[in-house]
């Protein structure tokens, strides 16, 4: 009886809130949460793996062919012959490449960075107003793919002192398999069966990273394709995640490769 | 183009909106905080929708509302309105157990402490057992009983005999 009375009273309250939910707002914020989770995954792949990976493994050519790495901070001076800057149409090319490999993928959102901005306890790439297209060093696009918790692509540039991508037993809390291969001068790293520390049990990701040779200005470019499922055993997730070859083909697509920025911001 | 899981999320939120909205106001005691609470919880729900949809979405969102609200008031430790022991006298009601108007209940709810509102909503709006409420709030079943009983008294909602101490 009490419950019914209380419910009746609460249901009679004039809440002052709209009669219909603002779904767009909830979804926009929810996608931002997904992006932040995705950011944590990428940090795990890059920063931690770099602790033990050797340049020879990453670049395939061996130490003799390695451009000297600049031990200075990651800020890079503008080059005399800076490449043509990227513009907003870059994202269209990414979506076209995604559509070829994943026809059911629906574009959700993107994060573009020409500088870092503080976000919570960390920093996130952000685009200025107006955008500084010559300095865009980060471009991520998220897509809805049936059966996946998330699916996205990202292209990023970093200074020579930045952690390199590669296989490492310390990269993730759990990683079923990691392979590194050379494809047309690129190093392709496949992190498979990744579970990120702190993520709910049953979250499994497959991450393909394509590491380009160090640029003439000493910068590094990584292109990534990542897919994640949730609420599964690894055995279930392994077949539910997109095929590795499809993800690798997409990650190697030139349309995902971001032109080198004039400068790269320091990550403090 | 809508994402594949957007339709399910939209259907769920639209279908349960009225209950979620009323529960949020009952928890927070005011519209502004209720709006913020709903924004937080429904964004989190959307972020995890594929899994939430497979499990029990209603239970997930209810738990989310309570947890997010409890997090808020535990973190701030500042109550906008202190609980009062005495409730001002009002004219008698035509229907026992019913407040005179909708605004009055909001006022009365706002006079309760966040802890009281949380227990009331969990126990009497979400129909959770006293044991579940006690576990969630980190207190004894007796505390849940006494807190809810006093809070209901302030709202002038009769406590049924089986629930009286």
From TrEMBL, chain A:
It comes from Nocardioides currus. Residues 67-83 have a biased composition (Low complexity). It comes from the Bacteria. The chain crosses the membrane at residues 40-61. Residues 64-83 are annotated as: Disordered. Keywords: Membrane, Transmembrane, Transmembrane helix. This is Uncharacterized protein.
From TrEMBL, chain B:
Belongs to the sigma-70 factor family. ECF subfamily. It comes from Nocardioides currus. Keywords: DNA-binding, Sigma factor, Transcription, Transcription regulation. Residues 18-77 form the RNA polymerase sigma-70 region domain. Gene3D superfamilies: 1.10.1740.10, Winged helix-like DNA-binding domain superfamily/Winged helix DNA-binding domain. GO terms for molecular function: DNA binding; sigma factor activity. The keyword Ribosomal protein does not apply. Pfam families: Sigma70_r2, Sigma70_r4_2. Residues 103-155 form the RNA polymerase sigma factor 70 region 4 type domain. GO terms for biological process: DNA-templated transcription initiation. This is SigE family RNA polymerase sigma factor. It comes from the Bacteria. Coiled coil: none annotated.
């Amino acid at each position: 009886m009490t419950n019914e009375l209380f419910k009746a009273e609460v249901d009679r309250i004039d809440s002052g809130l709209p009669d219909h939910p603002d779904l767009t707002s909830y979804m926009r914020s929810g996608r931002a949460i997904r992006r932040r989770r995705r950011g944590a995954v990428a940090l795990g792949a890059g920063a931690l793996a770099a602790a033990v990976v050797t340049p020879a493994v990453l670049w395939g050519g061996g130490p003799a062919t390695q451009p000297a790495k600049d031990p200075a901070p990651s800020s890079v001076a503008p080059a005399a012959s800076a490449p043509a800057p990227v513009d907003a149409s870059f994202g269209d090319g990414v979506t076209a490449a995604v559509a070829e490999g994943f026809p059911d993928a629906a574009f959700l959102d993107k994060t573009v960075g020409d500088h870092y901005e503080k976000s919570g306890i960390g920093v996130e790439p952000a685009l200025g107003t107006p955008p500084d297209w010559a300095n865009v060093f980060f471009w991520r696009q998220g897509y809805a793919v049936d059966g996946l918790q998330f699916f996205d692509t990202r292209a990023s540039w970093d200074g020579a002192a930045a952690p390199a991508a590669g296989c490492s037993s310390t990269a993730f809390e759990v990683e079923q398999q990691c392979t590194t291969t050379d494809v047309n001068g690129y190093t392709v790293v496949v992190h498979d069966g990744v579970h990120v520390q702190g993520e709910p049990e049953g979250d499994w990701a497959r991450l393909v990273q394509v590491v380009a040779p160090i640029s003439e200005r000493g910068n590094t470019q990584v292109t990534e394709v990542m897919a994640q499922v949730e609420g599964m055993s690894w055995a279930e997730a392994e077949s539910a995640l997109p095929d590795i070859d499809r993800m690798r083909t997409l990650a190697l697509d030139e349309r995902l490769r971001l032109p080198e920025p004039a400068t790269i911001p320091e990550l403090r | 183009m809508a994402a594949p899981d957007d339709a399910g999320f939209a259907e769920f939120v639209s279908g349960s909106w009225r209950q979620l909205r009323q529960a949020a106001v009952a928890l927070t005691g005011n519209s502004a905080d209720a709006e913020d609470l709903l924004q937080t919880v429904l964004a989190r729900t959307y972020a995890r929708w594929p899994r939430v949809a497979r499990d029990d979405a209603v239970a997930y969102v209810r738990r989310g509302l309570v947890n997010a609200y409890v997090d808020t008031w535990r973190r701030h430790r500042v109550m906008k309105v202190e609980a009062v022991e005495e409730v001002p006298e009002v004219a008698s009601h035509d229907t026992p157990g019913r407040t005179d108007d909708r605004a009055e209940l909001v006022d009365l709810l706002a006079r309760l402490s966040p802890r009281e509102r949380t227990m009331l909503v969990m126990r009497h709006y979400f129909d959770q057992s006293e044991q579940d409420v006690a576990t969630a709030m980190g207190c004894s079943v007796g505390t849940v009983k006494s807190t809810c009983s006093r809070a209901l008294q302030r709202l002038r909602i009769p406590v049924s005999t089986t629930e009286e101490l």
